[in-house]
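Morning F.,

Quick status update on the modeling queue. The single chain you submitted on Monday has been processed. Sequence for confirmation:
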Amino acid sequence: MLNTQENEYMCRVGPGTPMGNLIRQYWIPALMPSELPVADCPPVRLRLLGENLIAFRTTSGAVGVVQNACPHRGASLFFGRNEEEGMRCVYHGWKFDVTGACVDMPSEPAESNFKNKVRARAYPCVERNGIIFTYMGPREVAPPLPDLLPNLDEECRVDKTMRECNFVQALEGDIDTVHLGYLHMGHRKAEDASPGTEGYYTLKTRNVSLEVMDTPIGTTYGGYRPAEETTDYWRIATFQLPFYTIDPTGLLGKKTAGKAWVPLDDEHMMLWNFTAPTRGAVEGPGVGGIRGQTWTVQNLPQTGFQGAGYLPHTSDWLGRFRNIQDASNDYLVDRDAQARMESYTGIAGIPEQDKAMNESMGPICDRSHEHMGTTDQMVIKTRRRLINAAKAFEQTGKAPEGVDQPELYRQRAGCVLLPRGVNALEACTDLIFGRSLDVEATNEMSAVSS
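Structure tokens below.
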């Protein structure tokens, strides 16, 4: 449980806040290339860390992110002309390049050098395998991009969706392993799952024991439960500063995926999913296993994990990647399906179920009223890690952990079967922390059975 002051400290991300200042030291996923599909295409509104920005793609294909308000008289550059390597304000014709430099000022006398004295606030951008990152920090030379393993793969698949809540409470749901057996699988029984799979072990023992530790750039947990007579089933997952998580989906070392929980402002965030192609087993500990049809919302287009899809994009600051299922329609909860135990929640879609729980806490959860249990260890330790990182940067001004060590992000998560009593965080440490690529060794451990 956090007190009110700590909760505010952790959740506020706007300009000048300690948490906002911390996050600005890191590269931030800002856009997908498809949002700026071609050179000189229309600009888009973008909100990050409580700041309203305009993103555009130049004639040469470079991406610019600049302040919304033209430095001249404050008119929005969203209405500007994206032409010939810059964004031109239509009010008086002032034009800015991707660095924020004013490159043309036609409303001033030809002999004037005033344009050389005016700049728009601009943030550098880099595209890599489906993500356009921006750096909003103070350095003249930006740090290296983090080595997020799935995003290093040229075949990385990327999608995103907005949630109407603070980024921390959504992130916390992702590192809360015990809710899997209830929120997402509460209507299932062990006999519904194939023996030896994620579904089977989770449904056989819904509770979980946790081992949690700090890492150089975050926190890692190992959640374990009995598997067979002499083995334990482990789910290993990670939080990485400032807002990344790696889920325990798939066999450890076989699937590479991650999430970014990017704050748009204090009360809205964008969930990014990035996944490399699965190479290897598609069934086994930590993989699938649920038999039968999956219940879905009726008479609506289906996308993702049986959710109802997305609303049409609009051009406002928060108008993209919004789920049809939201608080205004109670996430399309089907009480009849819930009563029949076709669905534990009556809400279609795994991400949508998470979204409903995250948003139902309010835009910023009041954590001073919580009662935390033993299975909340990862959440507790991660909160403290975030707060301490922001305080350390506030007090010292030194680069936070991971900013200049991109290799530290080469972590893996996943599931593994191990002999009873063996600690997976110790036995698999080199593989988890990217010091070994010995996937086959993990496969052998995963094959252990009674």
